[in-house]
Amino acid sequence: MKYLLLGIAILHSTLSFSQNTDEGYFFGGFESNSQWLLYDQGINFDQPDDAFRANNYLQLSYAYKNFTVGVQYESYLPDALLGYSNAFANGNDVATYYVNYKNEKVDVTGGYFYDQFGSGLVFRSWEERQLGINNAMRGVRVKYNPTNYLDFTALYGQQRIGFELSSGTLQGFDANVDISQALSIESIDLKMGASYVGRHQAVGTQLDLPSNVNVVGGRLDVVKGNFYGGLEVASKSKDALFFEGQLVSPKLYDGTALQLNLGYAQKGLGINGTFRRLENFNFFADREAAGNQFNDQVVNYLPGLTKQQDYLLTNIYVYNPQPALVIENAEQRAGELGGQIDLYYSMKKGSFLGGKYGTKIAANFAYFGGLDAEYTVENRFYKAKFLGSGARYYRDFNMEIKKKWSKTFSSVFTYQNMYIDKSIALGGFLGTQGEIRSNVGVVEGTYKLDAGKSVRAVAQHLWTKQDQKNWMAFVLEYNFNSNWAVYAYDNWNYREFGYSQEASQTHYYSLGGSYTKGNSRLSMNYGRQRGGLICVGGVCRFVPESNGVSATINIAF
Predict the structure, then answer these.
(1) Could you give the CA distance from residue 64 to residue 101 in angstroms, rounded to a whole number?
(2) CA-CA distance, 86 to 294, in Å (whole number)?
């Protein structure tokens, strides 16, 4: 590791010098996430034989006039971090590479690339290292902009799985037109788009399975004064049902998706609502990848449309979207139906409630449930209503009040009332299943000191009579300046379900700090990791409980 870091430092210096020339320039970054796992009797965690684990990424690109080339090298040695897909296990190789040519009208990429059609309902290739997601496409992508109000994208290739490629081949096309600009309409902003993605996959001996599965979609976005809205619909052709590599039903089913966004915004007030209906709308680069918990080979982007929480206890029970069709004796599901509403309001400075510095209020309500459908298990038949009251999966109401009391002190008050069917929304990963109702209260305060110093403290409490029952958490963070910061927190499950009071004093503690200088950052911490789902942008990954020392290095150049 020390030789690798030395090489990065030398490379960084060399690249910084080379950017002063007229021969083009280098840019890129290095990221290392490592952990040393330790035995912990308190959470029944045994130290594995490969106690040290690391995920390392080195990305280097060179740009010259209209051309850019790049490569990303990845190392998961001696093994990947806990909770990551086996596709990364013991990997150490060039992961992605690309060559790109771009001018005012044409953008052509060969090799690996990322892209998104519309909101991602039909197609999204992206990288999120914290979740272990990198479904880059390897192939060819061409973007063409004949005018300033019209653009086209065509792509062809296979999706990345670790250091390998999917067995299915994807081809796609996307078109967007700015109608208002094309027709010189100033009173309204109107845009339209259409997308197509097809997957070709050899069927082998299963001749009744389709070789080609297609998804088509269309969208419309409108902005009129302070109002805005967007509608996107998509349809998937028929395919068989698989779960974790096993054929569940050879019968073929199609799928549909609809997403509607409406909102209003003006100074001091914002209202936004999102509604989504998904029916059998899983789509994978390999049909046999359906149901895997690592988000491997997912072609489209279906995040949880709920508020993305920032606190330890508001993130214990999170919603994982349920787009899949399940027809079994034990359970039947056809997809999900629901949405969320956000309200933002700023009280004026100097008013009675706003005070000298103003007050900001944010409220969110989210609800998701199953589709109202009829099932016949014997012949694998189902019929779902477009709207209806199916089984409830998740409901969340939360409110946040941000208040600045003086030039040096500000606070945040948060309340959450939540219901979740854990056996459905969390996939049963955490063991205990069933309906859970909880309340969470959070109080946060930040005090600014002289010379850039600040202190931040957070107190949290979660009440529930189900699952592991009550939790309490405390966070204390001290910033010496813009470079140095340290923190400590304790996430305390002080009353676990099914155990005596003496055996349920489980603390998930952590001590750590960070140093930031320019485009470089180093952080380290020691402590316990609570098992469960971690989510970024509404997409989740399961992590098991563990204890150890972790370190992260980020260098951008």
Answers:
(1) 10
(2) 9
CA distance 96 to 23: 24
Q: pLDDT tens digits, residue range 216-259?
A: 999 999 999 999 999 999 999 999 999 888 888 888 999 999 99
**How far apart (Å, rounded) are the C-alpha atoms in residues 440 and 459?**
11
Distances (CA, A) of 402 to 308, 345, 409, 411: 17, 11, 11, 6
* CB burial of residue 44 (10 Å; 0-12, 13-18, 19+): exposed
Burial of 93 from C-beta contacts in 10 A (0-12 / 13-18 / 19+)? exposed
Backbone angles phi, psi at 329, to 5 degrees: -65, -35
Higher pLDDT pick, 8 / 363? 363
Q: Tokens 């107190």 appear where?
A: 459
- pLDDT bucket at 495, cuts 50 / 70 / 90: confident
Q: 483 — phi, psi (to 5°)?
A: -100, -45
Q: Is the dihedral of CA 12, 14, 17, 20 positive or negative?
A: negative
Cα–Cα distance, 386 to 516 (Å, whole number):
51
Distance CA 488, CA 481 (A): 17
Nearest-angstrom CA–CA distance, 75 and 162:
11
pLDDT tens sequence across 116-167: 999 999 999 999 999 999 999 999 999 999 999 999 999 999 999 999 999 9
CB-based contacts of 20, cutoff 8 Å, min separation 6: none
Partnered with residue 256 across adjacent β-strands are 235, 279
Q: Tell me how long the chain is.
A: 557
